[in-house]
Amino acid sequence: MIRINLIRVKKKKRKKIPADMLVLIFLIIFVIGLFSFHRTVLVSRANELRSEVARANREIARLKKQIGEVEKFKKKKEELQKKVDIVAKLQKGRQAPVVVLDALARAVPEKAWLTSLKYTGASLKLKGYALNNYVIADFMNNLGSSGRFGDIDLKSAVRKSVKGIELMEFEISCKTKG
Length: 178
Prior knowledge:
The termini are far apart. The longest helix has 89 residues, at 19-107. The protein is rod-shaped and about 180 Å long. 8% of the residues are buried. By secondary structure, the protein is of the alpha+beta class. A 4-stranded antiparallel beta sheet has the order 1-2-4-3, covered by helices on one side. The protein has helices at 19-107, 133-145, and strands spanning 112-120, 123-130, 149-162, 165-176. Helix content is 57%, strand content 24%. It folds into 2 domains: 18-105; 108-176, 2-Layer Sandwich (Alpha-Beta Plaits), CATH 3.30.70. Helix 1 runs antiparallel to helix 2. The protein is built from 2 helices and 4 strands.
């Protein structure tokens, strides 16, 4: 037999949500939305900072390369400056013996002659003969007054007979100037 229930089923009445509860739900949704927005802003800012750091790192790499090139140029400049200094020193040194010999030739008196000359750096050793001590003294005075020699020192002056003529054998040391 078939049964049919004709009694209406009572529908449960929906309970109304209190207003306080609605405010609380909206507040929670608002706070969650606010946190989501804040997180999105932070992620965006972090991505911007990462790209800025990457760009700065690329710039640093480029500048390091330029610094390396600048350092190479500085080293090359120093090497070239050393070469220029050496050339200038050689040029100056090339003329120094000529100037010294010229001044020496002008300083030697008539009654004296040189038998040995040793020129090393700024030091000069002279050996020779003179007719007497006065000629040696004149020679030393001439050396001093030439302006090219300093620290003039008579090392020895010995009377010697050369081919029957009495002469003074002398040895003088001095320093050259400029």
